[in-house]
Design a protein that fits this description.
This protein is α/β, with parallel strands linked by helices and 808 residues long. The protein is built from 25 helices and 24 strands. Strands 14-11-15-16-18-17 form a six-stranded parallel sheet, sandwiched between helices. Strand 4, helix 7 and strand 5 form a beta-alpha-beta unit. Its cofactor is thiamine diphosphate.
């Protein structure tokens, strides 16, 4: 069932038009009027400060001083939007619109204004001449709105600032939305990006029964900023073969060249769109009746001139249909009388007097093309996913947790334990939660989820394949871009998910992370945007446990990248055993409007805390490990040994066990950090500690030896204002790596237990001279450990068999 396109009631979706009659001339006139109005508004946003309806002759003072924006893609977007409005209303079809071409904001804003949504959300931009003046003035203007389809843009989940992700976002929106049509306009410049070229394969991962439909509309307008586009300059037969090879049935609409009558283009587009939607309805009907074959989904190729309807020639240079129309065709519209007149003539060519009444309101001929209520693509709740989001039904972590009789008394693979818990998460949330992974789910030890689900897959299967099914909750494709894009689309339309990836290769989506973080920052400032589920990264197969992959797989730097963003939206968690990973994951899956980065190991490691202690420790974010230290009640410690991350914690505790045995009079405090942002001050991050809290844990003047999962200078950056910072010594990854054993890896970066003991001796006043012999023993132990790896190819038994003394 879906919302009725006219009155918001529900009705069956995916209807065929049911007639071979051509679209009525009245409908074609409405489409053309909408298109002209949207083009007029697009031009006005780029150029005008005043006189929005040209009630007076245009003057230089009416034109913006700084002309910013992009015109070239707007006519094609406006054309597509207008035609979709017609079929949504006629077929009662739930739909959303995603604009891939960069800087398509003027077009999307124009349509949101024409259907009334914009004025509903922003009452100060009323459907009056004054409101229209404000609408034009704000575009790409200080204190206004961006030139992309940003969070401020009604109906948008896709900014388009960075190109390549429109199809990934569209398919993410379609997953588990069986009645939804997602119209995704792919710019031909965008089509040259690697992520977009990969995302055509998303049609092999869509289930025609449980999922919605993505309708790709490849817009060939021929040019990028200054160059022709590849797909517009290859023979049509080659392009058609390419698109059929991707698994689509392409339908071509071409027109607008040599000032062709737009009405003919409208008729062709309307005819093709009806055929395409009838094809989709038939596919959905067959699938509902039990057809299990992979559909060949239709798509549209729309070829129109770049900047269609702008002046053909300016200053003797061809503009329409060339790259000159990409941004601002009339860059001197304010500075020269001739260009001001050209701009006025251009805008009057759309006949605004037919489109807006004497008060500045949109005339019925235009407005009546739009669906009503939430059926409007600019008002669909699918593009404001927080309106649709429901809380996950999360099981208690206790049933999956590892029972701990004594700290470190039992080993477990953290992600394997998490996988068991996620199995129940999937069972309880069969239509609102998915896991996304680039072919690494089993490698990252989360394969327990296959007890209750499969990998979604709608391409060919052969004997021997495992866990492939037409419908499933696991989405795996060997493209980090695709996984991230799918997840973003899924989250922004109201659902929940988890992205698991090798730590070193999450950098592939650095820029996508940037864009999503900026989106969340923007949406948080808009009361009408409701909170969406957080984007949760689980990074494993991490830097310290890459003994068979080697240096290429050793990079913890994504954390550094993440903490550059505004603190309101980013969180970094370093759980140090299975139970703390469960506690962190439970929290992250309940959070909203954040990006949570969780880094955890997959190999067998000691479990240090029971469930209750793990929850309490993770809620604090950092804290003293009472079982580990040797400090005496009521006395200040001589030394603080701090750690963040599973391997650094193991090495720190092994070092502390040596110190406790060999220097029993030394008072050592052990501090573990799970929530990295707790190290920041409270005025820098919502999770930050006050100075008083920080001082109480780390002291103000005692040496602190800190073993950290990633690059050590990040800890200094987070704590540089803290008291006692000059006493802080951080060990971490130093970009020393190779294919070697786990312990040799930590020795290469001097974060091993023996190096940490040496640091403790070197940095605690009075220990250097007294325990020079112990320090030498530690150096010798490193030599022996390295020699053992070189002789036997594995770590020494005293390393692999080490246990916390109480359970040794």
């Amino acid at each position: 069932m879906t919302h009725n396109a006219r009155d918001g009631s529900t009705t069956d979706s995916w209807r065929s038009r049911g007639t071979s009659e051509p679209v009525s001339e009245r409908s074609i006139e409405q489409v053309d009027a909408w298109w002209r109005a949207a083009n007029y508004l697009s031009v006005g946003q780029i150029y005008l400060l005043d006189n929005p309806l040209l009630r007076r002759p245009l003057e230089a003072a009416h034109v913006k001083r700084r002309l910013l924006g992009h015109w070239g893609t707007a006519p094609g977007l406006n054309l597509t939007y207008a035609h979709l409005n017609r079929v949504i209303a006629e077929r009662h079809q739930a739909a959303m619109f995603i604009a891939g071409p960069g800087h398509g904001g003027p077009a999307i804003l124009a349509s949101a204004y024409l259907d009334g949504t914009y004025s509903e959300i922003y009452p100060d931009v009323a459907e009056t001449e004054a409101g229209l003046t404000r609408f034009f003035r704000q575009f790409s203007f200080p204190g206004g709105v961006p030139s992309h389809a940003a969070p401020e843009t009604p109906g948008s989940i896709h900014e388009g600032g960075e190109l390549g992700y429109v199809l990934s976002h569209a398919y993410g929106a379609a997953f588990d939305n069986p009645d939804l049509l997602v119209a995704a306009v792919v710019g031909d410049g965008e089509a040259e990006t690697g992520p977009l070229a990969t995302s055509w394969h998303s049609n092999k991962f869509i289930d025609p029964v449980q999922d919605g439909v993505v309708l790709p509309i490849l817009h060939l307008n021929g040019y990028k900023i200054a160059n022709p586009t590849v797909l517009a300059r290859i023979p049509r037969s080659e392009l058609e073969s390419l698109l059929r090879g991707y698994g689509h049935e392409p339908f071509f609409v071409e027109g607008g060249f040599d000032r062709e009558d737009p009405m003919e283009v409208h008729r062709r587009f309307a005819e093709v769109l009806d055929v395409v939607l009838d094809r989709i309805a038939a596919i959905k009907s067959r699938a509902a009746a039990g057809d299990t074959g992979r559909p060949v989904w239709p798509m549209i190729v729309l070829r129109t001139p770049k900047g269609w309807t702008c002046p053909e020639v300016i200053d003797g240079v061809r503009v329409e249909g060339t790259f000159h129309a990409h941004q601002v065709p009339l860059a001197d519209a304010r500075d020269t009388e001739e260009h001001t007149r050209i701009l006025e003539s251009w805008m009057r060519s759309y006949r605004p007097e037919e489109l807006f009444d004497e008060h500045g309101a949109v005339v019925p001929l235009v407005r009546e093309l739009a669906p009503l209520g939430e059926a409007r693509m600019s008002a669909t709740p699918h593009a404001n996913g927080g309106l649709l989001r429901t809380e996950l039904d999360l099981p208690a972590i206790d049933d999956a947790a590892v029972v701990v009789d004594a700290p470190g008394g039992r080993d477990a693979g953290a992600t394997g334990v998490l996988g068991s818990w996620l199995t129940e998460v999937i069972r309880r949330n069969p239509t609102t939660f998915r896991i996304f992974a680039p072919d690494e789910l089993a490698s990252n030890r989360l394969q327990a989820v296959f007890e209750v689900t499969e990998r979604q897959w709608n391409a060919e299967t052969v004997p021997g394949d495992e866990h492939l099914a037409r419908a499933g909750r696991v989405m795996e494709m060997l493209s980090e871009h695709q996984c991230q894009g799918w997840l973003e689309g899924y989250l922004l339309t109201g659902r929940h998910g988890l992205f698991t990836c090798y730590e070193a290769f999450i950098h592939i989506v650095d820029s996508m992370f940037n864009q999503h973080a900026k989106w969340l920052n923007g949406s948080r400032e808009l009361p009408w945007r409701r909170p969406v589920a957080s984007l949760n990264y689980l990074l494993t197969s991490h830097v310290w446990r890459q003994d068979h992959n080697g240096f290429s797989h050793q990079d913890p730097g994504f954390i550094d990248h993440v903490v550059n963003k505004k603190p309101d939206v980013i969180r970094v968690y370093l759980p140090f055993d299975a139970n703390t990973l469960l506690a962190v994951s439970e929290h992250c899956l309940q959070s909203t409007d954040e990006i949570n980065v969780i880094v955890a190991g997959k190999d067998q490691e000691p479990v240090w805390l029971g469930t209750d202690d793990a929850r309490a420790h993770c809620a604090r974010g950092l804290g003293i490990l009472p079982f580990a230290g040797s400090e005496r009640a009521g006395e200040r410690p001589d030394l603080v040994m701090a750690c963040a991350g599973d391997v650094p914690t193991l090495e720190t505790l092994a070092a502390v066990s040596i110190l406790r045995e060999r220097i029993p009079e030394l008072s050592v405090r052990v501090v573990n950090v799970v929530d990295l942002m707790r190290l920041m001050s409270e005025d820098q991050h919502p999770h930050g500690l006050s100075d008083a809290e920080y001082d109480s844990v780390f002291t103000t003047d005692r040496p602190v030896v800190f073993a950290y999962h990633g690059y050590p200078w990040l800890i200094h950056r987070l704590t540089y204002k803290r008291h006692g910072h000059d006493q802080l010594h951080v060990r971490g990854y130093l970009e020393n790596g190779t294919t070697t054993t786990p312990f040799d890896m930590v020795m290469l970066n001097e974060i091993d237990r023996f190096s940490l003991v040496c640091d403790a001796i070197d940095r605690t006043p009075g220990l250097g001279e007294r325990f020079a012999g112990l320090r030498q023993e530690m150096q010798d132990a490193r030599v022996r450990a390295r020699a053992h790896t070189r002789e036997f190819g594995e770590d020494a038994p005293e390393i692999t068999g080490w246990r916390w003394p109480a359970v040794g």
